[in-house]
User: Which sequence fits this backbone?
């Protein structure tokens, strides 16, 4: 065998292992799906299609279903209570999800479940997310699961129907992009700042058509939660999937989780996982290298995640009308810093930064301080498990003592379709993933940042470098 | 799905770069459980004032945009979420094709599965289209060409399988279901 034939990337290994029918000029490959994550927003029309055609769900055992997007973040214990607190359409969607899962034999992590949460938080938490798996969901942030060495990407509702009915997808093989991260991360700078820097460097379409693999010394030092934050926002650079080679950190995180293999099955799985990482001489279609050793906390200033600067720099100037439109929407001026700008709302949560380590970082800055008088702080744990763990450490008490709201798990203000929204014209510093116009509610303005930067903004009431508050 | 072979229409130009799916159809309209009726909320925050009245300065509200089935957008159209509600909203509004220099992966996939044709053109052709709003152009799937006024034609890339399905009006689930035996064999091999 020639060297070129032998060397494979992680992506190629996972792709090759899931080919049911090979790609040709005429037809895409048929790719088998190991785990199908389902939520209430992008699945109803797919279930309706199955019903109309008299089809069953092929592998209900490979589905992991929950409620997250249109669910309230105030306590709800039953569907009756839901109908009281939710908008009628949102409540109807949740009730339809209950009906669909029950009719098609899919277990649903519903309101009464101690395992309910944002779909991209509970997959890893339960051990369903595993190296080498193909994972899809009708949600673009499915890229999160790539942190474990899975090939994970978002699909549309028609494709949700394809997977429900056949457990397969028709796919053309994407290209590969290696993002090499080197250097150790300075204090006060986080995984969120790394991924914002990457998006700022390659642009919001820089990864279109590619699967990213994040590699390099920095990556090997990151925790699984930090790796998830980075892979989560791959789609914000246009890449449907972002992957990281599994290592001991990965296996340590996964061991003994309820849906992970146990006992001898674990040993067999571990042996297979250890063969997944990219070969030293594997080729990539494109390579980008970034040194993080002098990285600063990053903040977005415009209306897409590629419009991002270090917190101590000024908003760059630009001539084209779209750029000026974005600055006008955000009410920011070229040549002026973002730091010091008054903030109305701080949102800490989402599939990007709603895990325990994110809440710990926020709590570290909130402890013994008060949220500024005119700021609303909303802290939304990513899952019931995250909420329980955080409460066991007293993080809820720190948030409440500071004057913040401590909520039930869900997507909440990241997508603003459950009633939680920033408000027209108001400025939010948010740990979520999208600063598009109106993403956090009609007319809302969003600055994306890390949990540290968000917490710093909450206590000062202004866009603030968190390092100023850290001893 | 109705077969799509050729689209001949005047264009409407929305020359904004990086139009994301949250602009095409904001998340607050995703609580629906059907695919229909989303057109009224297409580009809703750009099309309507806060009081619900139409914004006169937005191009899709202008009389010259009426009846245009081809949207010429700025660079990189459809980035962001995986919501298929975006192509559903465009189609429901009366848009049958989108032309840009780059179209986001998930949006492109979703469009092809619903009969909305994504057309990627080079920078020069794109600039010309942006500078000449309302011209009549023809998108032909048989020849995979975009014909400009005067007859000049340029090729555009489109996946052969997706093109076949569009032209025959076939949905891809039928094709997958025909591979039942291969799927079962794959599952048995791995068991």
Assistant:
């Amino acid at each position: 065998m020639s060297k070129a034939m032998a060397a494979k990337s992680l992506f190629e290994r996972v792709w090759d292992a899931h080919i049911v029918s090979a790609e040709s000029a005429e037809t895409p490959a048929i790719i088998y799906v190991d785990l199908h994550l389902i939520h209430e927003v992008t699945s109803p029309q797919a279930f309706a299609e199955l019903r109309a055609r008299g089809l069953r769900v092929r592998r209900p055992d490979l589905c992991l279903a929950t409620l997250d997007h249109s669910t309230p973040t105030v306590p709800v214990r039953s569907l009756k209570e839901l109908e009281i607190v939710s908008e009628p359409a949102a409540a109807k969607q949740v009730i339809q999800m209950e009906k669909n899962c029950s009719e098609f034999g899919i277990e649903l992590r519903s309101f009464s479940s101690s395992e309910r949460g944002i779909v991209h938080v509970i997959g890893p938490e339960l051990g369903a997310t595993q190296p080498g798996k193909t994972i899809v969901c009708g949600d673009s942030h499915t890229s999160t699961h790539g942190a474990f060495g899975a090939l994970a990407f978002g699909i549309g509702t028609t494709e949700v129907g394809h997977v429900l009915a056949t457990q397969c997808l028709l796919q053309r093989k994407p290209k590969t992009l290696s993002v090499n991260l080197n250097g150790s991360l300075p204090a006060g700078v986080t995984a969120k700042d790394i991924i914002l820097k990457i998006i700022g460097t390659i642009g919001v379409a820089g990864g279109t058509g590619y699967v990213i693999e994040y590699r390099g010394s920095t990556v090997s030092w990151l925790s699984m939660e930090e790796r998830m934050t980075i892979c989560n926002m791959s789609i914000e650079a246009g890449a449907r999937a972002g992957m990281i080679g599994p290592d001991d950190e990965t296996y340590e995180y996964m061991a003994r989780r309820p849906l992970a293999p146990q006992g001898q099955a674990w040993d067999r799985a571990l042996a297979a996982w250890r063969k997944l990482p990219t070969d030293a001489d594997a080729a990539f279609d494109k390579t980008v290298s970034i040194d993080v050793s002098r990285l600063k906390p990053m903040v977005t200033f415009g209306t897409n995640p590629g419009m991002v600067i270090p917190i101590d720099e000024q908003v760059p100037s630009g001539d084209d009308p779209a750029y000026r439109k974005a600055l006008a929407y955000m009410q920011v001026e070229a040549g002026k810093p973002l730091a010091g700008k008054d903030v109305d709302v701080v949102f800490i949560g989402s599939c990007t930064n709603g895990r325990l380590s994110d809440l710990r970082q926020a709590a570290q800055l909130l402890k013994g301080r008060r949220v500024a008088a005119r700021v609303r702080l909303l802290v939304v744990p990513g899952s019931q498990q995250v909420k329980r763990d955080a409460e066991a450490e007293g993080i809820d008490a720190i948030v409440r003592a500071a004057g913040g709201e401590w909520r039930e798990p869900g997507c909440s203000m990241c997508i603003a379709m459950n009633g939680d929204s920033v408000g027209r014209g108001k400025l939010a510093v948010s740990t979520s993933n999208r600063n598009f116009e109106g993403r956090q509610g009609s007319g809302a303005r969003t600055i994306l940042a890390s949990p540290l930067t968000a917490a710093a903004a909450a206590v000062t009431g202004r866009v603030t470098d968190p390092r100023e508050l850290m001893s | 799905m109705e077969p799509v072979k050729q689209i001949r229409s005047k264009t409407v130009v929305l020359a904004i770069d990086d139009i994301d799916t949250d602009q095409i159809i904001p998340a607050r309209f995703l609580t629906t459980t059907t695919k229909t009726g989303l057109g009224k909320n297409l580009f809703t925050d750009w099309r309507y004032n806060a009081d619900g009245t139409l914004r006169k300065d937005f191009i899709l509200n202008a009389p010259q945009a009426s009846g245009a089935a081809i949207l010429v957008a700025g660079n990189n159209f459809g980035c962001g979420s995986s919501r298929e509600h975006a192509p559903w909203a465009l189609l429901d509004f009366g848009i049958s094709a989108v032309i840009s220099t780059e179209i986001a992966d998930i949006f492109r996939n979703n469009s092809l599965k619903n009969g909305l044709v994504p057309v990627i053109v080079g920078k020069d052709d794109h600039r010309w289209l942006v500078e000449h709003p309302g011209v009549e152009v023809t998108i032909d799937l048989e020849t995979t060409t975009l014909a400009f006024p005067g007859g000049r034609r340029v090729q555009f890339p489109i996946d052969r399988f997706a093109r076949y399905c569009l032209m025959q009006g076939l949905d891809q689930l039928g094709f997958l279901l025909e591979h039942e035996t291969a799927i079962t064999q794959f599952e048995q091999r791995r068991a």
Notes: Chain B touches chain A through 51 residues (CB under 8 Å). The beta strands of chain B are 6-14, 70-73, 97-100, 117-120, 136-140, 145-147, 153-155. The first strand of chain B starts at residue 6 and ends at 14.
